[in-house]
């Protein structure tokens, strides 16, 4: 049996209830076969892949908190410090009822390669809780965040592990988490990114993942003699990533016509009104039905359905495995030319393969959504320097980083004979830097 197959088997056997983690490991190792097979003897001897797929350490902890009626609740918190070969662990915190250790491990594993691709010194980690922020008052969110950080603060620090936001964790949560860290540790340091601008946050971090996605898509389209100009785009999600993907798509001349949340979706043939969407989602924290009520050109539909809308481009920006084989078939049928992932692993392996086999340009999230974490690393730099850069400076650096990621991914794909396969290119380019650092640091 090949080394790759052995390690995939091992991961499935040793972590039986973690399907998302299996999927992430399979996707990466399968596409690294060509590199691994060329070095199989040495990698086996060094147990390189076993070290790569096993987190350096992981924490699981109890998070008790009191709701507004005085009722005590207990949630579970996690932090997985996956790989610190190229820098302090870096990756977001997800608060969503679906969170379990397998989901945090898949996200932490993806983060290793994504962070490597940014070219910045950050290792891979991820954390979160099965806490559901929906419908909670600000006081309840604060109570939960303070309890979560009381435990998490034992394991993180500006030079060891620097969490940030992800699903269910935005500026409000990061503020409460930061306040509690400072109170417990007595340290005013860049221990979290995505902070508010009045306490060490970076301009453009809020916009960074969505903007970065469009910078990457633009570079990918240009390299294939295409452009964003005049293209219709379908976007899923209506959170941080989706909103700023829509905003940048409009700025670059495309017309996004959809967005979604966990209960339904919007089709707006006139193009999404991004200021209205921000008001509804970021300020009022309402459902998408409010968008359709305020916008005569928009249709609201219950359930899932954005991938059935005819468009040139598709940007999945909600959650894992939201774009499945039947969705990929609908996209191809409707003549989509490119899919770029804003979310982490939103496209199943079968759907990705179908899209690629049918000539659709496909940008994998670990490359195309790396702008968020890259800008987090820029926030860390500003915190260390005790400086704040302007929006234009950060945005220009973000654009440069995303274009550079595209060039590296494209070059790696070409070098190994997989021209235009950006999945293989991203995995190889991300992997090479991590293993070089791991090898240089001995057996650890
Ligand atoms: N924030 C960041 O900087 C980065 C985020 N990502 C990834 O991007 C994706 C979106 O994150 P972000 O925008 O920050 O999160 P938000 O919490 O801001 O928004 C998430 C969006 O996805 C929807 N959603 C979440 N879970 C589901 C589900 N199970 N089914 C359908 N819709 C769902 C939400 O709908 P509802 O409100 O109804 O729950 C919401 O519209 C995630 O995969 C995240 O890991 C990747 C890189 C960086
Ligand atoms: O900004 C960060 O540190 C993490 C962003 C994130 O969670 C991600 O890239 O998926």
TrEMBL record:
<dbReference type="Pfam" id="PF02812">
    <property type="entry name" value="ELFV_dehydrog_N"/>
</dbReference>
<feature type="active site" description="Proton donor">
    <location>
        <position position="126"/>
    </location>
</feature>
<keyword id="KW-0520">NAD</keyword>
<feature type="binding site">
    <location>
        <position position="90"/>
    </location>
    <ligand>
        <name>substrate</name>
    </ligand>
</feature>
<dbReference type="GO" id="GO:0004354">
    <property type="term" value="F:glutamate dehydrogenase (NADP+) activity"/>
</dbReference>
<feature type="site" description="Important for catalysis">
    <location>
        <position position="166"/>
    </location>
</feature>
<dbReference type="InterPro" id="IPR006097">
    <property type="entry name" value="Glu/Leu/Phe/Val/Trp_DH_dimer"/>
</dbReference>
<dbReference type="InterPro" id="IPR050724">
    <property type="entry name" value="Glu_Leu_Phe_Val_DH"/>
</dbReference>
<comment type="similarity">
    <text>Belongs to the Glu/Leu/Phe/Val dehydrogenases family.</text>
</comment>
<dbReference type="InterPro" id="IPR036291">
    <property type="entry name" value="NAD(P)-bd_dom_sf"/>
</dbReference>
<dbReference type="GO" id="GO:0006537">
    <property type="term" value="P:glutamate biosynthetic process"/>
</dbReference>
<dbReference type="GO" id="GO:0005829">
    <property type="term" value="C:cytosol"/>
</dbReference>
<dbReference type="InterPro" id="IPR046346">
    <property type="entry name" value="Aminoacid_DH-like_N_sf"/>
</dbReference>
<dbReference type="InterPro" id="IPR006096">
    <property type="entry name" value="Glu/Leu/Phe/Val/Trp_DH_C"/>
</dbReference>
<protein>
    <recommendedName>
        <fullName>Glutamate dehydrogenase</fullName>
    </recommendedName>
</protein>
<feature type="domain" description="Glutamate/phenylalanine/leucine/valine/L-tryptophan dehydrogenase C-terminal">
    <location>
        <begin position="202"/>
        <end position="442"/>
    </location>
</feature>
<feature type="binding site">
    <location>
        <position position="240"/>
    </location>
    <ligand>
        <name>NAD(+)</name>
    </ligand>
</feature>
<dbReference type="InterPro" id="IPR014362">
    <property type="entry name" value="Glu_DH"/>
</dbReference>
<feature type="binding site">
    <location>
        <position position="376"/>
    </location>
    <ligand>
        <name>substrate</name>
    </ligand>
</feature>
<comment type="subunit">
    <text>Homohexamer.</text>
</comment>
<dbReference type="InterPro" id="IPR033524">
    <property type="entry name" value="Glu/Leu/Phe/Val_DH_AS"/>
</dbReference>
<dbReference type="InterPro" id="IPR033922">
    <property type="entry name" value="NAD_bind_Glu_DH"/>
</dbReference>
<keyword id="KW-0560">Oxidoreductase</keyword>
<feature type="binding site">
    <location>
        <position position="111"/>
    </location>
    <ligand>
        <name>substrate</name>
    </ligand>
</feature>
<dbReference type="Pfam" id="PF00208">
    <property type="entry name" value="ELFV_dehydrog"/>
</dbReference>
<feature type="binding site">
    <location>
        <position position="209"/>
    </location>
    <ligand>
        <name>NAD(+)</name>
    </ligand>
</feature>
<keyword id="KW-0547">Nucleotide-binding</keyword>
<dbReference type="InterPro" id="IPR006095">
    <property type="entry name" value="Glu/Leu/Phe/Val/Trp_DH"/>
</dbReference>
<feature type="binding site">
    <location>
        <position position="114"/>
    </location>
    <ligand>
        <name>substrate</name>
    </ligand>
</feature>
<dbReference type="GO" id="GO:0000166">
    <property type="term" value="F:nucleotide binding"/>
</dbReference>
<feature type="binding site">
    <location>
        <position position="165"/>
    </location>
    <ligand>
        <name>substrate</name>
    </ligand>
</feature>
